[in-house]
Amino acid sequence: MTMQIALRAKDGLVVASDTKIRTTEQEFPAKEYSPFGIVNSSKVRVSKRHDILVALEGGGVGESDPAQQMVDYLSSEHEVPDGLSELLGKWGNRYFEAKFQGQKHEFPLFRLLVVNPPTGYLPFWKLRVRQTSTCQSSSTFMVNGNDSNSAIFWPEYFKCDKQLHDLPTTVRIAALTILMGSQLNPYGVGGLEIWKYDHTWIAVTPTQIETLKQEFRGFEESSMRSFVSAKA
After folding, report:
1. Contact predicate 117/124, CB 8 Å
2. Residues 48, 190, 152, 185: is their CA dihedral positive or negative?
3. Strands 110-115 and 141-145, sheet pairing
4. What is the Cα gyration radius of the chain?
5. Whole-number Å distance between alpha carbons of 14 and 126
6. CA 181, 122, 204, 211 torsion: positive or negative?
7. φ, ψ of residue 178 in degrees (nearest 5)
8. Which of 57, 47, 48, 46 is nearest to 142 (CA)?
9. Which end of the chain is more exposed for a tag (fewer CB within 10 A), N or C?
10. b/e map 107-143, b = 16+ CB within 10 Å
11. Which domains, ranges and CATH numbers included, belong to the chain?
């Protein structure tokens, strides 16, 4: 399980992702997956040529890195159109066919969150990779992975679909969403990485991430828990 969110700001874009990965051992031919361990690693890749960010939900297949493969694919394109549906769908279908030639799978192998900053209207795209891959787009914000997690309350509470906030505020809304998502689904969501775009993609530093985590813990204790435990 993974949780990621992409948000538009007044002066840029923000992407936040958890970093928790449950590794598995797979039998060949594939029969079942068994838990093997937990690691924390970045799920985000960036195309320096086109400034496109790609984040992976799901483990891909074997030792492959689908997010990096998508970045390489987009970087090889001379130009990337505003509408990414055809380009992404073509890649997804080819990926599936290469891995599962002749097979049929309706459930997505994995999902890729693709963020294209130069696109004014639809910067956010989600690709579901399966036999016939499908795309979804958004102009305001997009959740990838654990999108049924109740933590998506926060971008709705701050009306991110109707109101743009400045970049620092948007970073904090994104952090709040992923950190709360981890509290509600600790088995599947954990850790935090944040990328912000203002002319170029920049990763929020580990020191800043730790500060956000500490402030979140303080918010939980001083605000939510104190409110519900207060005597009327």
Report:
1. no
2. positive
3. unpaired
4. 18
5. 15
6. negative
7. -70, -40
8. 57
9. C
10. ebbbbbbbbbbebeeebbbbbbbbeebebebeebbbb
11. 3-229 (3.60.20.10)
Predicted pLDDT at 28: 45
pLDDT of amino acid 39? 84
The secondary element (H helix, E strand) that includes residue 37 is strand 33-40
- Cα separation, 135 vs 212, whole angstroms: 32
| pLDDT at residue 103, rounded to an integer | 79
Burial 57-95 (b: 16+ CB within 10 A, else e): bbbbbeeeebbebbbebbeeeeebeeebbebbbebbeeb
Token pair for 98: 């290469």
The count of residues in the chain is: 232
Cα diameter, the chain: 65
pLDDT less than 70: residues of the chain: 24-36, 60-63, 230-232
Give the orientation angle of helix 206-219 with respect to helix 167-184, to 10 degrees: 60
Give the per-residue pLDDT at 105: 73
- Tokens standing for residue 156: 């709705």
